[in-house]
Amino acid sequence: MNIKIKFFGGFEPYLRRTLCEIQIPASLKIKDLRVQICDLLAGADIQVLDSEKFRELVRLSAFADETQILSDEAEVSQNTQLAVLPPVCGG
After folding, report:
1. Residue 55 has what DSSP assignment?
2. Of all helices (H) and strands (E), which one includes residue 7?
3. pLDDT per residue as tens digits for the range 40-67
4. 2-85: CATH superfamily
5. pLDDT tens per residue, range 64-82
6. Which positions ≥6 away from 71 have C-beta within 8 Å?
């Protein structure tokens, strides 16, 4: 199934574009997407510039759909758009 993923903030140095459309297996959970994301992006011809730092940032980030932050156990829905929100600091 197809989904769109928008990467925000700290992801910009690692991706040539921050909005991607990728093909994922049905019934994929967020926790599985975290692990497989670099491979899935490569399959969509999205180049990750520093995969180790990118993976670490994905591991620390929140995933959200159009209405809520998603738990790692949430299943990704068909034709959804996900946001990947890296941790931020500041005051």
Report:
1. H
2. strand 2-7
3. 888 777 888 888 899 899 999 999 999 9
4. Beta-grasp domain (3.10.20.30)
5. 999 999 999 999 988 899 9
6. 30
